[in-house]
């Protein structure tokens, strides 16, 4: 388990293959509750290659010195990511 936000990752390997490959991450908030936005790819075994970029927002709670994932939201396509960006830009334009 990770004890700092920088140590948190969504990398996942199985049988020597990186099933989930983290490409980048942005720590959106730190503290007892930490929020991280990840950019990642998943291995497609049938094609023998990684799929398109995906994105995930994950919330972690720190308990007893270790972070535990409490929730996640996966953004499954660039189109969905663009819609999310557009909505947030519209909602925050006067902030």
How big is the Rg? 15 Å
Determine the number of helices (DSSP H or I, runs of at least 4 residues).
1
Class from helix and strand fractions: alpha+beta
What shape does the CA trace take? flat
Largest sheet: 6 strands, antiparallel
Describe the structure.
- Strand 2 and strand 3 form a beta hairpin.
- This protein is flat.
- The relative contact order is 0.17.
- The chain contains one helix and six strands.
- It is an alpha+beta fold and 95 residues long.
- Strands 1, 2, 3, 4, 5 and 6 form a six-stranded antiparallel β-sheet that branches.
Strands, helices and their partners?
Blueprint: E1 12-14, E2 17-29, E3 33-44, E4 49-50, E5 54-63, E6 66-75, H1 78-92
Antiparallel strand pairs: 1-2, 2-3, 3-4, 3-5, 5-6
List keywords for this structure.
95 residues, alpha+beta, 53% strand
Task: Provide a quick synopsis of the model.
By secondary structure, the chain is α+β, with helices and mostly antiparallel strands.
